[in-house]
Amino acid sequence: MTVTVSGHLPVEPYDVAVVGAGVVGCAIARRLAHHPGLRIALVEAQDDVGQGTSKANTAILHTGFDAVPGSLEARLVREGARELAAYAAESGIPVERVGALLVAWDEEQLATLPRLAEKAVRNEYHDTRLLGPADLYAREPHLGPGALGALHVPGESIICPWTTTLAYAVQAVRAGADLHLGAPVTHAGHTDGVHRLDTPRGPLHARRLVNAAGLHADTLDRSLGHDDFTVTPRRGQLVVHDKFARALVRHILLPVPTALGKGVLVAPTVYGNVLLGPTAEDLDDKHATGSTAEGLRRLREQGRRILPALLEEEVTAVYAGLRAATGHDDYRIAAHSAQGYVTVGGIRSTGLTASLAIAEHVTGLLADTGLALGPRRPPEPVRMPNLGEALPRPHQQPDVVAADPEYGILVCHCERVSRGEIRDALAGPIPPRSLDGLRRRTRARAGRCQGFSCGAAVRALFEEAQR
Amino acid sequence: MTSRRVDVLVVGAGPAGLTAASLLATAGARVEVLEREQSPGGVPRHCAHRGFGTWPHALTGPDHARILAASAEHAGADVRTGVTALDWAGPRALTTVGPQGAETVTARAVVLATGARERPRAARLVPGTRPAGVYTTGELQQAVHLYGQHIGTRAVIVGAEAVSHAAAGTVRAAGAEVVALVTEPARAPAAPARTLDARLRHRTPVLTGTTVTELLGHGRLSGVRVRHRDGRTAILPCDTVVFTGDFVPDHELARRGGLTLDPGTRGPAVDGALRTSRPGVFAVGSVLHAAESAATAAREGAHAATAVRDWLTDGTAPGAEGLHWPTGVPLVADPPLRRIAPNRVTPGDRFPYLLRTALPLPRPVLHVTQDGRPLHRERFPLTTAVPHRPLTLTARWTHRVDPAGGPVHVTVA
Ligand SMILES: Cc1cc2nc3c(=O)[nH]c(=O)nc-3n(C[C@H](O)[C@H](O)[C@H](O)COP(=O)(O)OP(=O)(O)OC[C@H]3O[C@@H](n4cnc5c(N)ncnc54)[C@H](O)[C@@H]3O)c2cc1C
Ligand SMILES: Cc1cc2nc3c(=O)[nH]c(=O)nc-3n(C[C@H](O)[C@H](O)[C@H](O)COP(=O)(O)OP(=O)(O)OC[C@H]3O[C@@H](n4cnc5c(N)ncnc54)[C@H](O)[C@@H]3O)c2cc1C
């Protein structure tokens, strides 16, 4: 098991290097790790997996009912959703099948609903149902006044994006893939059938290259001589509301897309909070993950219409993610056989859902470039710590606490994170290297007090583990 | 899961809970105090400065915390640290978890003393990036005074109240520089001497009429953008920012239990005997009015002890349920008053009321009315009521309240 953060990268060439340890890159590395004969490197610029767009999204496991029929994205979302739901159940990744309601607030939106239902059928999704206002308000009694009807999509689910990415990475690493963190690829070149990736930690060589660099996939693509797409970051700001808001909403409340653009959604999270967002702002800066006063004001204005009582609850967190928009209506996944190179670009707003299917697809493309995958052996299953509210957390399980009292000592009170869970995360196969990394693994400091009560205690545990 | 019975279950071992526990245990009740932290004392545990205890308030916070905890234990209260009250298992029963596992504790009376917290950056909707180096006073004090953690070198303090000056003191104690205290009101809210002391002795600017509009920096905070009410903006370079004040009650248990909350305080609604809407459940301290002084919290703890004793004597006899639990009528503070606690009133109430105003009120006169009928008028000829300090209204008028009447209003003439 190899996870590095510093020092020279190994000299020996890998069979495959995957650049970018977001949910997509991790899924690909995990899929490739089904072939024990392959030497795989997962190369990541930052100090943790899933620190790019994969950490800051709306955390919905889509059915793909509204994808562009016939597109690659439509197929991969459809297949990926099914696979991820099964994988999540097996691995302990929190998922709740809460279903979605596309709520129509005016006649135009109402008229759109049947067309969306037809589109769903073309996307092989047959379970949608039109609801009148009475049914809608019976399902969502706290919905603001004036809704005319809704399309119910029962398959839409919510999921934990951090556990998903981490589960993939852990499984890949346990199955023998090398994870190199803190290794930004500054340049890539291909000579004599071998890729050379330059990083501040020295070069890394590989016979095959997968570009899963998310927002920076276009830059890496260009350095290999391709000019197929340009990534324009499209920012989505989101507001996380206090757990007391969870009782206000049962489904994911989706906006109905119209010519005037997309509205915002209100969605529960598996941790028991309620999200409001995202905005959609086209920007130039791939680092612009800040929130803005204007963005928050607009979100709250729209949220007040959808779920007025939501605005009465405290805000727990605010964040923003950048979608890797490319100006194309589909993923930009392309194999360059002669180069032994696969680009996985433009995974804009469905990459979490589609990740496992993207990984399968990319593995097929790699085989098409002549990569001999060798025998296949499924990796050991993983069992991830439960961060969700739907299943019992450790402190709620008497036998767990009896066996190890550390699970009964709560450190982060808002999220009820025990010292045992923090200890486990710090000793995990891919340990966190920052308090944010620890938060994504345990939820410590993620609650309503944001560290007022527990911040220093959590930091002390983290720093103790670094010594 | 084990289950136990006690006379009184106190949730929270801060000044309010510990004071109530001491007095009740002294009076012979079986008292158990649940505290989720590893040591008792509540917020004063990490307030290293002096200003605690009874007059002349010469104790440091940690000394105060130790003395309160020792006296509760000496009186015979069972103070259990590292134990969290999770939820309700009955009208006066709570589920708990600690290193010994899960328990249900059933009591004849429950006292909620769960305190308050400062609203963190996100709750205040301050936009920008999410860098490291962003604190509340509570976290800062614990980092510096309990754990000796490094906190950065240059700190901006958001707020300029008493707690903000305490935060500035902690920053200096950690060897870092206070860049400025930034506050929205046109006049610094702390006592003038405090502001002057910061400006003259510490040479710390107190920027009034100024708002923090954005946090800057990736990874670590690199600065905050501020805007003055005249429209000027500037960036204050810093690696640490402390959000102070803006307290909210830790009302989680109260809300989970379905207790009536007061819209003004967002804490449980209580009458002059600190009774909540549920028979046998009392509430004291910062959870009622986030946040007043530790001395106020202790005073309420003591007052509630008397009411709890009365309830144990008279209220929990078979068949007595409800009889001895008057719910009172709502007591409402009208704008520009922001809140009042207690916020329900029964004719027998004798405990003074604490008010906060949204605007400065020179020499205020308060009118208490019910259904248009004047009950009381109180003048404060020597006082200017200010937003950051409580104003005390006597309870001399409560016998005039009609328990079957409408809400009682407190208005400013
Ligand atoms: C607001 C918002 C809401 C969304 N909601 C959903 C949703 O509900 N459901 C859903 O399925 N999807 C959703 N998405 C989309 C989903 O988050 C993305 O599709 C997915 O995270 C993309 O993963 P990725 O691995 O391609 O990219 P990333 O997570 O960005 O990973 C790319 C990685 O590559 C690394 N990297 C980049 N350049 C280099 C380099 N040169 N060298 C080394 N490493 C490099 C980066 O550091 C990063 O870790 C949403 C996206 C946003 C922004
Ligand atoms: C940063 C800061 C600085 C302050 N400085 C001063 C000062 O200088 N002078 C002054 O007079 N006042 C000061 N105050 C106010 C003073 O601290 C409070 O008035 C006082 O602590 C209130 O006492 P309390 O008992 O109501 O609550 P707290 O002291 O807040 O104690 C509440 C306790 O309840 C526990 N608790 C909460 N929920 C649960 C649960 N579910 N299970 C178990 N335990 C639980 C908490 O862990 C905590 O220990 C300050 C407050 C803050 C936040």
Q: What does the largest sheet of chain A look like?
A: 9 strands, mixed
Q: Would you tell me which CATH topology of the largest domain in chain B applies?
A: FAD/NAD(P)-binding domain
Task: Give the number of domains of chain A.
Answer: 3
Number of helical stretches of at least 4 residues of chain B: 7
Figure out the total of helices of chain A. Answer: 12
Cα-atom Rg of chain B, whole angstroms? 22 Å
Distance between the termini of chain B: 57 Å
Query: What share of the residues of chain B does DSSP label as strand, in percent?
Result: 25-35%
Secondary structure class of chain A reads alpha/beta
Brief overview, please?
The complex is a heterodimer of chains A (467) and B (413). By secondary structure, chain A is α/β, with parallel strands linked by helices. Chain A has 12 helices and 23 strands.
Describe this structure in words.
- The complex is a heterodimer of chains A (467) and B (413).
- Chain A is an alpha/beta fold and 467 residues long.
- Chain A has 3 domains: 2-55 and 161-230 and 328-368, FAD/NAD(P)-binding domain (3-Layer(bba) Sandwich), CATH 3.50.50.60; 100-154 and 232-325, 2-Layer Sandwich (D-Amino Acid Oxidase, Chain A, domain 2); 394-466.
- Chain A is built from 12 helices and 23 strands.
- In chain A, helix 1 (23-32) packs parallel to helix 5 (161-174) and helix 1 crosses helix 8 (351-368).
- The longest helix of chain A has 20 residues, at 72-91.
- The model of chain A has no long low-confidence stretch (mean pLDDT 97).
- Chain B has 413 residues and is α/β, with parallel strands linked by helices.
- Chain B has 3 domains: 1-116 and 247-327, FAD/NAD(P)-binding domain (3-Layer(bba) Sandwich); 120-245, FAD/NAD(P)-binding domain (3-Layer(bba) Sandwich); 328-413, no CATH class.
- In chain B, the strands form 8 sheets. In chain B, strands 1, 2, 5, 6, 7, 8 and 19 form a 7-stranded mixed β-sheet that branches. A 5-stranded parallel β-sheet of chain B has the order 10-17-11-12-13. A 5-stranded mixed β-sheet of chain B has the order 22-20-29-25-26, with no helix packed on it.
- In chain B, helix 5 links the parallel strand 12 and strand 13 (206-207).
- In chain B, helix 1 runs parallel beside helix 2 (61-74).
- The N and C termini of chain B lie far apart (57 Å).
- The relative contact order of chain B is 0.12.
- Bound molecules: flavin-adenine dinucleotide (FAD) (2 copies).
- One flavin-adenine dinucleotide binds at residues 19-25, 43-46, 51-54, 57-60, 62, 184-185, 212-216, 220, 236, 278, 321-323, 347-353 of chain A.
